[in-house]
Every structure is written in C-alpha cells, then in structure tokens.
Amino acid sequence: MPPAAAAGGSGLLGLRRGPRASVVIIQDGRLLMMQRIKNGKEYFVLPGGTIKAGETPAMACVRETREETGLSIWLAEQLCTLEHKGRIEHVFLASKFRGTLRLGGPELARMTPDNQYHLRWLDYAQLQQVKLRPKNLLVYCREWLWPVEE
Fold it and tell me: A GO molecular function for this record (predicted)?
C-alpha cells in the first residue's frame, strides 16, 4: 500500500496533494457545500477534488462534481484561485446543473463514523457560522451570495 493510502490519504507523511478544482453551485440563494466530519472535527469545503494528470482544472471540476454529487454541471467561468496549507484550489462557477443530488464516488465508499461526508445547501448566514476550508472562502461567499435587496 502506498504511504499516503496507509495514512488515509491525508498527506500525514508529508506527501503533498496536487492542486484541487472546486465548484460554486448556487440555488435559491444557497451554496452547495460538502460537510466533512473527520476524527471529530467538522468543516465545510466546496465540492471538488484533486486534478488528475492530463486534466485541466475545468475538466477536473466537472468530473469531481459528477462523482461527488451526482450532478452534471456547465461551467461559466473561473472565479478565483485559493490556497490552503500550500495547496492551490481553482474555483469555478456552475452556470447550470442537472441531476439528482446524492453523495457518490470515493466519498461514499470512504464513509465511516469517523470520516463523514454530507452535501448541504447553506445560505450566507449559515456559512458565517461554520468552519470553512480554505479559511478565506467566506470573503468570496459573501460576494457570490450577497443578500438581494427587496
């Protein structure tokens, strides 16, 4: 078994994971997030994952979103590039999506009581109350979900 696999794929042995691609999917003023509960610690990330060899960030974003959420997405544009603990994250906006939202792929296969994945729709007020990764994600969420004046 490769060292990263023995460590649960978390890079605990000093192995760096490659760049990540993630997606912003907004519906009814809420942002789709992946809730992670790992070894008793809870945090939220955008759906997405590691860019494979030969993939562009956009290709990885579409593939990872389909695997993790069951949704087919169409990308509008790259919104920003973030960094968390030395790992680069390319963030894209989905212009539209189709499908039935359901957890799938490796996330479903790795689900245990100590390693949980849950798809959640959160509005801006809820995003302010949870731990986001990367930490500076909230600044961007405010821009993406700015409350509409009525």
Answer: hydrolase activity
